[in-house]
Amino acid sequence: MPFPDEPNQVAVVEYRPEWPAEFERLAGQLRAALGDVAVAVDHVGSTSVPGLPAKDCIDVQVRMTSIAETRDVKLLAAIGFRCRPEPWNHHEVSAGQRCRKLVFAPPIGARRSNVHLRESVGPNARFALLFRDYLRADETAREGWGAFKRRLALSVPDLLENGQIKAPATQVLMAGAERWAAETGWQVRLQQE
């Protein structure tokens, strides 16, 4: 569940050209706060894909040398970011592997965002980058995913229910992404993406 100051309804909007600059501002804050424990700061999720409709919420992935909850919560709390209390916040399964993660909400009153801390070599970090790069590269997949998200938001606007329905559809999308990665030789780059 979102914090009380955050919306709990999904509204999908057309792509906004200001999203990359908004990401860059957030990325600068995060790099300064996390220092050397941050390997890379990536714009991920739907707002990172030009032309893709999305919730007006910037998703940021910080690839970390390691996840150390006490350290990481303290570093981000110093700039107002709040560790999400949801039970899904500490682990996720990606490529059949249980992966550590932490997700943070922005400071109260700040631009809507989700900051995902993931270990830099984890399959969950790869998943986020592959999702983005596949949708950037494949116009048909991008248009289909955008249409699906618009329809879903209209019929199921509740944030939690929307996410539960979207999860299996994301797996179908990612099967296509994996085929695309194999065909093109796509790989994760170490530097910021």
Can you characterise this structure?
This protein is of the alpha+beta class. It is 43% helix and 21% strand. The chain has five helices and eight strands. The strands form two sheets. Strands 2, 4, 5, 6, 7 and 8 form a six-stranded mixed sheet that branches. β7 (97-105) and β8 form a beta hairpin. The longest helix is centred in the last third of the chain and has 26 residues, at 159-184. The radius of gyration is 16 Å and the shape is globular. The mean pLDDT is 94.
Tell me the series of helices and strands, N- to C-terminal. Answer: EHEEEHEEEEHHH
- Assembly classification: single chain
Structural class assignment: alpha+beta
**Helical coverage, percent range:** 40-55%
What is the total tally of β strands? 8
Q: What's the structural blueprint in terms of helices and strands?
A:
Blueprint: E1 12-13, H1 19-34, E2 38-44, E3 54-55, E4 58-64, H2 69-77, E5 82-83, E6 91-94, E7 97-105, E8 113-119, H3 123-137, H4 139-155, H5 159-184
Parallel strand pairs: 4-8
Antiparallel strand pairs: 1-3, 2-4, 5-7, 6-7, 7-8
